[in-house]
Amino acid sequence: QVQLVESGGGLVQAGGSLRLSCAASGRTFSSATMGWFRQVPWKEREFVATINWSGSSTWYADSVRGRFTISRENAKNTAYLQMNSLKPEDTAVYYCAARYGYRPSSRGVGDYDYWGQGTQVTVSS
Predict the structure, then answer these.
(1) Strands, E assignment, the chain
(2) CA-to-CA distance for 125 and 117, rounded, in angstroms?
(3) 35 in Cβ contact with 24 (< 8 Å)
(4) What's the pLDDT score for residue 117?
């Protein structure tokens, strides 16, 4: 059992910043690969960023690379997504995800085993 709870979403103006948090409980957090995804109406859930168990390796979607930063603090059982230079097209429900064990891919919805409930991010122009 793994429980993930996102927080930190809200309404910001274009060009602003927001930091999302994902608090984990249950199975050992420090051994998990973590990911952030987002979803808007009429579209499939979209990969945003991923980070390995130690935080030594990260990967980002082209649409957010250079603006977003994924990080984690294993001692706090928490993952983060720092979002800077926000654009209206970043508006979505953002989901935290976790998986255990080796997999060759970490950028698809099917690559993760556990999901949070999502937090709404709205960027106004």
Answers:
(1) 2-7, 10-13, 18-26, 33-39, 46-51, 58-60, 68-73, 78-83, 92-99, 114-115, 119-124
(2) 26
(3) no
(4) 97
